[in-house]
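Let us practice reading a record.
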Amino acid sequence: MARTGQAGTMNTSIFLCLLIILLTRGSPAACVGDNSSASHSTASTAEKPVLLDNVEDAEAFISGAEVAVIGFFQEPESPEASQFLLTAGRIPEVPFGLSTSPAVLSHYGVEANTVTLFRMVDNQRRDLDMNNNDIDAEKMTRFIRINELRLVTEYTPMTAIGVMQSSFQLHLLLVTDKTSPKFPEQMRRYREAAELFKGKIKYVQLFSLGIFNKGWTLDKILFILVDINLKSNERTVSFFKLKKSQLPALAIFNAPDEEQDVLTLDEVSIERVQDFCNGFIERMEKGEDEPEEKAPNEEL
């Protein structure tokens, strides 16, 4: 029985390698000598998808990227698996894994012919069932593009759907010009600020807003980049009443009550981002409708 299992794994690997070579136009050398590619870089298209034979490899694969996609299949030669491989070749910046291991499928609670996207930013996953739908590479690509929220997610017509469907209630937008020579430094500082907020959840009691119950949870902040050069972003910029002359700017939006605030910047700094976010959260905690308390000796 052990020899049969090894032969099955070898046949699977050969099949995957041939398809990968065709898809990536890579060299056969990329597939020689190592099946446990969880130890390899998942960024290279020549090594995608990574064959995940056990739970340990799958967990390491998922934890090693902001966004990771795994195709769970019973047969790697199936039409669904072929469409998955085509999709992997179209999205080189996202690591793809493939598993036919019953133990791995059971660990993640999925059935065969399921594509699952794992994202680090909120420790959530999205499943795409390929059994009951006519799923092809086009639809799979759209599924991934919609759901690939990152530490900093660029706002586009495709990612806008994922942003609206996410569990994040607070959205922080950096509205700026990506063609500006200052942009790389702005992005670096904005990302560093996002890392400081990663994994932090603020518990608040918003009594004055009425629509929230006592102990309502204010979730983490989703950091978003809005490039003013995209035609589709014009409505977003106008929504916050911003002009190009006022950029760069930060805009924060609380989805449940549509509360918002805007801050124009001379330069993007980690401290300004932190202060802006914390100040907005503190004002929400207090509630805008609460009357200000007067000092005991203040004259009327």
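A brief commentary: The first strand starts at residue 50 and ends at 51.
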